[in-house]
């Protein structure tokens, strides 16, 4: 009812809510579900099996429903369910890519060009920054903020109320490809509730960063960080003198 | 006059110059202004209130005129004017995203996927590299080069003739989200005229890098850098032995 | 034969193989060559002079055939041949940008938003991660894996079986723009066969990393690394105690 659907859009789905706006050249595949008050900008693709909640805005050229697709060189098997759930009130930025088998809570922002791989889950009220890449099977809690360009490795867990600055790199393979893929060997860091990570920090595989710990800008974290502690440097060491962004000023 | 406008383009604007080429599926909204000798590639969107100078080329899927759009989780208020000015002779790369309330001088290159947020200004003869993200209210002078993947934080100032290598990270929030947004607390670094910044360097909030200073590759800059000095290391310290890219060879 | 070409696609080429699927709003220019069993998703552009092998899949909004395009501020001359060859079995991700004068072997994955500049060559069975940017005239061997966000500088050589983690930065200009472009002065690192490079490492211009060497996460490599050695730290030094990802645990 009262929806505005441009004649240049391609609408195969019959499950489109009320007060929806769909702009030119958007493509909504058969079986996709679109809630009420949704705005879909031009050149967006929403594939079959995708469910979009109410009050969601999807900016131009976002691609929701990418199948994982390997080549001969891939080592990890590609298992996925051809479903995506995006909760109420989310905003999906231009050029964002969301793979199949992803679940996103409500009121979360996926910024320009962010790419979220299969089997990942992102909670509610999160901000995933521009060009952040979330790798496969990574679980992110609620109220998490990840700034631009950060790379979240596969098989990684992030709690609630975590703040990750821009340009942060995580890793999940200590052997750097030398031993192929097994779920036991390829494990990213665990980031517990309330952790804050400074700009450009690097966190190595299997490291556990415990609750409310703080990682200084540019630190290389090679071993576990106890709850509430601040670490800095290369390799990162525990410091008691946190003042600014994890670095003494 | 003599313009070539593809029949698949959607042209709502009536202010289009001479000798313009607009390709398939480009969208030019009502009230947008397009100068002479402009080339617009397919899938480009130019929104209302955008003014494009003469001799500009806009590559495929660039999106010029994104409104800032928050979710419940955003802390900073979204104030902006729905205008963009792009000067003569600029080139806008594929997938670039330019938010409303941005002004770009003449003969500046915005490369593939660069994302420029609201209230930012970029001068003339600049090169903004691929996937560079410029955050809100950041002011960049003339003849500045920023290489690929660099992240320029919000509320940051950059002078003229600055060279910023690739993978550089800047920060503007010493408390990493712990205290919400105020314009006084959230302040990026100031980079003065002629500064050169090496690959992968990290520069912390409120730091002032004075004229012609040089920051070594990978340095973490936690305090002000005096004019003409070279700093390196973590945390960055003044060195007299600059030889190559800010690192002694 | 048996091809499925959507009526909304724009097909100027007459050299299209068998069992091809071309989706809505894809654009295939005159003179492009498309092999058998190729899938082209919506909003893809394939320009004149591009040759796509058999069994290739091209995801939405990929742009294959970008001409290099400078502005007044560019220092390097733009020489290129308006050709691209993509071998059999390759996968090109959404929003990937491939410039003219690029050759890609077979069964290579170019991931989401990767951008490959002119005069570069990428071998077979490689994985080029999301938002990796490959600069001009960079030569990459076979069986190379480059993870997300890594920046490969111009005029750089990479051997076979190299593993480069995410967030790695390379540089090719010791003077950071101070002396303009000459092919003798602007030279990236050389990475020999079997080298492994940890997350977030930085490698400076003209450095040679010899066969099977290992670079620790976050290292800043300022001088040559002998074959088989491990280096870590800032500046990187030779260590005999490699355990995990190049960092002692």
Structural commentary:
The structure is a homotrimer of 249-residue chains. By secondary structure, the first copy, chain A, is mainly beta. Helix content of chain A is 0%, strand content 31%. Chain A has a 13-stranded mixed sheet with strand order 1-4-7-10-13-16-19-22-25-28-31-33-34, with no helix packed on it. The first copy, chain A, has a ten-stranded parallel sheet with strand order 3-6-9-12-15-18-21-24-27-30, with no helix packed on it. The first copy, chain A, has an eight-stranded parallel sheet with strand order 2-5-8-11-14-17-20-23, with no helix packed on it. The termini of chain A are far apart. Chains in contact: A-B, A-C, B-C. At the B-C interface, strand 28 of B face strand 26 of C.
- Give start-end ranges of low-pLDDT stretches of chain A: 241-249
User: What general outline of chain A do the C-alpha atoms trace?
Assistant: elongated
Coarse structural class of chain A: mainly beta
- Percent of residues in beta strands of chain A: 25-35%
Q: What is the count of helical runs of chain A?
A: 0
Largest sheet of chain A: 13 strands, mixed
Question: Mean pLDDT across all residues of chain A, rounded?
Answer: 93
């Amino acid at each position: 009812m009262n929806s505005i659907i441009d004649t240049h859009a391609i609408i195969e789905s019959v499950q489109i809510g009320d007060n929806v706006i769909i702009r030119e050249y958007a493509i909504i595949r058969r079986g996709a579900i679109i809630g009420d008050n949704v705005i879909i900008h031009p050149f967006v693709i929403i594939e079959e099996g995708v469910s979009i909640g109410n009050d969601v805005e999807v900016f131009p050229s976002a691609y929701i429903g990418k199948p994982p697709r390997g080549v001969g060189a891939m080592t990890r098997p590609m298992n996925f369910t051809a479903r995506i759930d995006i909760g109420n009130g989310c905003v999906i930025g231009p050029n964002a890519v969301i793979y199949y088998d992803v679940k996103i809570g409500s009121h979360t922002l996926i910024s320009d060009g962010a790419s979220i791989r299969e089997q990942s889950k992102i909670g509610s009220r999160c901000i995933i920054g521009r060009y952040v890449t979330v790798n496969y099977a990574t679980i992110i809690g609620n109220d998490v903020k990840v700034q631009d360009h950060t790379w979240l490795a596969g098989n990684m867990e992030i709690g609630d109320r975590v703040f990750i600055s821009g340009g942060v790199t995580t890793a999940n393979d200590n052997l750097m490809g030398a031993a192929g893929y097994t779920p036991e060997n390829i494990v990213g860091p665990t980031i517990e509730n309330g952790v804050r990570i400074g700009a450009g920090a690097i966190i190595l595989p299997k490291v556990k960063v415990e609750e409310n710990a703080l990682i200084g800008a540019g630190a290389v974290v090679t071993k576990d960080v106890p709850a509430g502690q601040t670490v800095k440097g290369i390799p990162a060491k525990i410091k008691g003198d946190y003042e600014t962004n994890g670095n003494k000023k």
